[in-house]
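User: I'm new to structure prediction. If I give you an amino acid sequence, what do you actually give back? Let's try with this one:
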Amino acid sequence: MSTRFVDRVCLVTGSTGIAAAAATALAAEGGSVFIVSRDDEHARALAERISAVGGTAGWYAADLATEAGADGAVSACVERFGRLDVLYDVAGISGRRHGDGPLHEMTLPGWEATIAGNATSTALVLRATVRQLLAQEPRPDGQRGAILTMSSVLATSPSPGHFATHAYAASKGAIEALSRAAAAHYATDGIRVNVIAPALVATPMSERAQHDPAILAYLATKQPLAGGPIDAETLTGTALYLLSDDARMVTGQVIAVDGGWSVTEA
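Assistant: Good question. You get back a string of structure tokens that encode the predicted 3D arrangement of the chain. For your 266 residues, that looks like this:
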């Protein structure tokens, strides 16, 4: 078993799907994992599952789209474990139920809710994390920490027939731009920032798509390496690589884990 995250404190936002798979894997590789979610029951349950198999985990409930929630999450992590080394910012929303959609149908509340739930929450969590990393002494190798944010193939490879949620695409594009800017600014401080951009992953957020026969038929050719929705665990290897010292020379990159979505036609 790899021990890449021994003596590393890892903050993971989100508590189901991609986030749950990553938090479990980080703990299995020796990391002390701190889980933050709006849903306190999910966050607690994930931390308890990790602890039950010998891992080290804590949890905190917060609305990360607020300054108090994002700042409180980082503070609680540091209070629990004494420092912060790794951030995997997975938490986000689909704005469809708030009124997201194609521009001519999208509502202002849909736009605002989607931008807040994705781009604003990421910005606030990154801000709190970077402040904490800058306040800590760097490791002997000069590194202070690694950050990984969550985009989507829809930011750069739209699917107008099945996924016409324009606020969502915009929010993910904003995350990519923010992450690149932060990577450039903080590289000299020993802080790395990268982005992972998946296609459609089998998570609770994508339940609607997973039960739509037309979308499943589309995914069979659009994501040919998966033949359908991608398993959440499939993203974990790429995520842990980017967060570990194996990728210590990698920053400012957007890595698509999309089963072929961005290079195929459907």
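You can read the tokens as a compact description of the fold. Here is one thing that stands out. The CA atoms of residues 106 and 201 lie 24 Å apart.
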